[in-house]
Amino acid sequence: MVKTKEKKRRITFSLFTTGAKDVRLAGTFNNWDINKHHMKINDNGVWTKTVIIPPGTYEYKFLVDDEWCHDYANDHVTHNEYGTLNSIIVVE
User: Fold this and answer.
1) Cα–Cα distance between 12 and 51 in angstroms, integer?
2) How far apart are CA 35 and CA 7, in angstroms?
3) I need a surface site. Which of 11, 21, 51, 80 has the fewest CB within 10 A?
């Protein structure tokens, strides 16, 4: 029996926020490591980060200047153990 390897996907996360100096991406795909995915701002004021992850369902948030926020552009959310919301993404 041959085991097939799931193909990883490039996923670009983005966040528009004004006045931020530091934005990071963390979620279940990186064990909530706030130091792994630093986002960069483009000329339009949008922070982005492309990550390569395997198919699956993931929870994530942005850390904006040391304050957590979910992805307001994504309606797929779930409550977390801290009484706030995590955004959800399904990678196929």
Assistant:
1) 6
2) 25
3) 21
Cα distance between residue 80 and residue 52, in whole Å: 24
| Residues whose CB is less than 8 angstroms from the CB of residue 61 and which lie 6 or more positions away in sequence, other chains included | 26, 27, 68, 69, 70, 71, 86, 87
pTM: 0.91
CB 29 within 8 A of CB 61: no
Residue 5 DSSP one-character state? P
> Per-residue confidence of the chain (92 residues) as pLDDT tens digits?
555 567 999 999 999 998 999 999 999 999 999 999 999 999 999 999 999 999 999 999 999 999 999 999 999 999 999 999 999 999 99
Taking residue 25's Cβ as centre, other Cβ atoms within 10 Å add up to 25
